[in-house]
């Protein structure tokens, strides 16, 4: 827990500096932003195989793939463990140069923060606050557990400009590229269609409530859902597990906050897209109360929150002292993160261990 508290404190200090008009820069470089990027990235790179429930699996996959030398063997291995072909090739290429399983942890972590930095710099109104939210909303630690899927989702979100510009083929190319890391991101295709529907408060609330109704009718809808799930993933539909409702409850509070303070009439197309993605996250979170696997699908959309929330807090209606309200709001988010660390081992990332320990 100590390592994550240190990250939280350092990123918070950087965020305070980054939001100050007199930002400290060195040779034109935004020290606050890059400091908030580099330190968490280094912690991700240096972590051991026990930090993140799935980290040891990626480690083992890498060392196994290094030992395979024919396409037949590689394909069989990828099919057996449901590894994407692109991800398998990426592992094999690295294996030509480095044999240690720590290699994939290092390279995946670097890719994660490159994708994250590009996305934030491209879309965020307040980049330093987006980094603060990436830590305090638990996305960072969850990503350490499911890093290929998070890299894939960040790649797709980085291609949101093609949704906004209505460039279907370019967006599909981004989807195909991201699917080489994790096939589940194909679901983002739905956002291309949904974005054309303008969200209002009533529609947003209605859609949120619809998720609860689907949850109650899940057993009856299961035969229909299974028709759209590939055979290799059918086993996930048979595993029932109740997910953690604390995070869902906190996201509902954020959803309510957005509905209350946002002027939907003045909000642009970017806000509409981000809110659709957030609603998708909430819908799958509903379903995760029936099947745990849906919490992983929900997580694909979570990074959008670090773009949506700064947009909302920068454009609040009926608020005279935005600086004060923002200070209170982001302080509360920081407090909930510290409390969450004390009751929930986010992504099974605690205790933190360096790879040499």
TrEMBL record:
The keyword Transmembrane applies. Keywords: Membrane, Transmembrane, Transmembrane helix. The chain crosses the membrane at residues 31-49, 93-117, 147-165, 171-194, 206-229, 241-264, 293-312, 324-343. The keyword Transmembrane helix applies. InterPro entries: EpsG-like. Pfam families: EpsG (PF14897). It comes from the Bacteria. This is EpsG family protein.
